[in-house]
Amino acid sequence: MNALWLLMLLGVAAPPAATDIPVSCMYSDILGSWRFFISKAPLGRDSNCSAGPGSETNQEVIRLQKLNIAMDEHGKEGTFTLVYNQGFEVDLAGYKWFAFFPFSESNGTVISYCDKATPGWVHDVLDQQWGCFYGQRIDPPANKTPLVFTHHSSKRVPRQLFKNNPNIVNAINRIQTKWKARQYPEYHDKPLEMLEKRAGGSLSRLLTPPQSAPVTLDVKRLASSLPKTWDWRDVNGMNFVSPIRDQGGCGSCYAFASMAMLESRLRIITNNTQQPILSPQQVVSCSHYSQGCDGGFPYLIAGKYGQDFGMLEEAYCPYKGEDAPCQFQPHARYFTSDYQYVGGFYGACNEALMRLDLINNGPVVVGFQVYDDFMYYSSGVYHHTGLDDVFNPFEQTNHAVLIVGYGHDATSGLDFWTVKNSWGEEWGEDGYFRIRRGNDECAIESIAVTATPIPQLWWKGRGSGTW
Ligand SMILES: *[C@@H]1O[C@H](CO)[C@@H](O)[C@H](O)[C@H]1NC(C)=O
Ligand SMILES: *[C@@H]1O[C@H](CO)[C@@H](O)[C@H](O)[C@H]1NC(C)=O
Ligand SMILES: *[C@@H]1O[C@H](CO)[C@@H](O)[C@H](O)[C@H]1NC(C)=O
């Protein structure tokens, strides 16, 4: 069996291909028993699993139950989570399974197959043995009518250029007083597609972001004892946040935000004695868990890629801002020991849990929905105004960024998050923005990710010789 196996499995004419509308599967679509078909022999960790597990397979049946329980045939219990709406990860009996859901597209209609798993990776939790697998839900039996999404046909002509529009800036500044909009001359005449890539890219799009979860009484009590304001850039005069960077025209925000979290947490864990700058290009060029300059997700990068492959420092794989071949200077890497969605699984996040994780562990990486008006943010506490820029029709994206603090703004009367962006220091409030906190503004309180980096025992400083 070759790459055609999937088409045969799906019984569809068009190959599942990269498209500008991603898969969108929900928990209710995936609960039940799955049969996983696994490569007969262990494979290398760098295996390209896209080609499937081979013609000879072993099989394993795993049951996924509410809320996040995975169980094998012997009754052994583990956990699972959706990975955004696009895949799932199972952690059970010493093995981690991860795969995306397949989809096909023709003429503006996208079909998600939420009862199937494209070839993905399975490996033991110590990363010693790797295999490829694909999956099929067997109970309830495969859906005869898969999920179908109709592509909202693009609002704009291809290759349209962004034009500065004082009208929308004035309209935003007139309609509310909590934040200020301004024009960014450097965006003028840039392709709209490029600006959308900067804001997450088409493959990071979430059609249906989850809502933030209810706050339990325990969590409420714990969170009520936290400080009223926090800023990891100034904790008794110490700064634990690495410098602002600029991702350029590549849809690599997910890699920048992931690196920014690990960099900051390394500084916190080592009291600023280790301050590596990590390489987003390594992720863009080398990660099978993301789609290079077309987007990706922090759970799979700060978390899974960091655990499975580790991060090089910037010096060994400098940023190019394009889908360059996977080339780097081999060197010691930074790994992550634990990772999860804040709350334990996709959909379990809320504002109180985010503050607890922020204070206890360091900055947390989040995604939020970007609307037209955000592109003009200059200062203040952002909230979506509902105003659309008809001259620069921006396709909604999900942008990955890093929350470094929170507080209450006396001027606007709003609670806010302080957020590190990757659009250079000239953007927003010196590269940062603030956004309304406590009401899941633009879904920013629904999909935070936390991960624990492992510092180097043999740290010698950035770009120093060999260990
Ligand atoms: C992985 O395999 C697929 C299907 O066989 C192929 O299209 C793709 O180019 C391969 N990717 C890499 C990085 O080798
Ligand atoms: C594709 O969709 C458009 C718009 O819905 C329709 O007019 C056209 O006939 C479709 N083409 C095919 C080949 O189905
Ligand atoms: C952390 O570093 C600061 C500044 O160098 C120092 O004053 C402080 O004592 C250190 N804290 C600990 C716990 O080592």
From TrEMBL:
Gene Ontology terms, MF aspect: cysteine-type peptidase activity; dipeptidyl-peptidase activity
Domain Peptidase C1A papain C-terminal: 226-452
Reaction(s) this enzyme catalyzes, per UniProt: Release of an N-terminal dipeptide, Xaa-Yaa-|-Zaa-, except when Xaa is Arg or Lys, or Yaa or Zaa is Pro
Signal peptide start and end residues: 1-18
Domain of life, per lineage: Eukaryota
One Pfam family, short name: Peptidase_C1
The protein's enzyme class: hydrolase
Listed cofactors: chloride
The keyword Signal is assigned to this record: yes
Keyword Chloroplast in annotation: no
InterPro entries linked to this entry: CatC, CathepsinC_exc, CathepsinC_exc_dom_sf, Papain-like_cys_pep_sf, Pept_asp_AS, Pept_cys_AS, Pept_his_AS, Peptidase_C1A
GO process annotations (BP): proteolysis
Known EC number: 3.4.14.1
Keyword set, alphabetical order: Chloride, Disulfide bond, Glycoprotein, Hydrolase, Protease, Signal, Thiol protease, Zymogen
Family in the record: Belongs to the peptidase C1 family.
Known function: Thiol protease. Has dipeptidylpeptidase activity. Active against a broad range of dipeptide substrates composed of both polar and hydrophobic amino acids. Proline cannot occupy the P1 position and arginine cannot occupy the P2 position of the substrate. Can act as both an exopeptidase and endopeptidase. Activates serine proteases such as elastase, cathepsin G and granzymes A and B.
Subunit structure: Tetramer of heterotrimers consisting of exclusion domain, heavy- and light chains.
Cited PANTHER family: CYSTEINE PROTEASE FAMILY C1-RELATED
Protein name: Dipeptidyl peptidase 1
